[in-house]
Amino acid sequence: MLPAIIVLIVFMGIPLFNLLVPTLSMNGNPLSNYLTFFESNYQVKVLIRTIRVATIVTLICALLGIPTAYYISGLSKKWKSLLMAVTLFPLLTNSVVRAFAWINILGQNGIINKLLVSSGVLDQPLVLLNTEFAIIIGSVYLFLPTMIISLVGVIDSIEPETLEAAATLGANPLTVFRKIIIPLSIPGTIIGSILVFTGTLTAYTTPQLLGGNKNMLLSTFLRQNALTLGNWELASVVAFIMILITLVVNKLLGLLAKRVDKRLVGEAS
Q: So what's the pLDDT on residue 264?
């Protein structure tokens, strides 16, 4: 363990400490910079928007990921390998390329607006780009494969005899999915939710290209202050707020996972 601990201290602990020191005020309250952050309505709106977008993306990925992973798990080895490769394929493409693809889809002259206008459904194109909606769509596309991968392994571990027993007792496929698959896949859902939430919270390229400056998230706000405005003190405060949010969410979901595990063990006994 010693080499790994040294690497973490040198390459993670020390840089984080050097980042934390400028955020602490030496005059009066050491947390005054953090209190000043929350006194700004604009900065609080950016924080709330970031948490809202990350939460919505996580929920959508969970709702889409569970049935998709269940379907993939029920296929033969050949088709399962093929669909897993298709699922992983977007991860092999640079996030900038994927964001520009969504610009071509959601833009005023994009595919969606062209279809709606040419078909007579709309007289004028919709404003889909540079909106919170665009950030959510792009983020779901970006992180849905992560959720599916986290769930496939968990659903694969469910004993087939359990599903056969439920079917023998008269449960239809929908009941099996609702009362067996979903509860037993909760540990994988929690792991996937942690990955998706933290990924969405810290992503920069997708919010910047699809949301623009009007729908700024903490990641784009951090970059603006660090590289454009040169306000490294505020940028460091934002960075540590993002770290704290990530730690709190991970802790809460970890507690939820433990509670679910205890409940499942109790029901099994």
A: 61
